[in-house]
Fold this sequence. Notes:
Elements: H1 9-13, E1 21-27, E2 30-36, E3 41-49, E4 65-67
Antiparallel strand pairs: 1-2, 2-3, 3-4
Amino acid sequence: MTHYTIIPWELIWESSDIEETYGEVEVGGVLLQVRLEQGNKATIVRMLRGELEDYLNPSYAPGQEIVYLPSLQNRR
């Protein structure tokens, strides 16, 4: 891959000190990949599974913030 730019290589290949954490959450039968933020928030990255009409729903669009409250489930 060839990459032409005026940006110094140090800035392109520098590693970020902030490590992003991703997870999967199911909302209303739609499986979403989310990026976990500070507090009880998450930002939608992409939809992993859903019905066709769910892809047109702006509530599930990438970049939307949702409230993320994880819960533990007892599987017996």
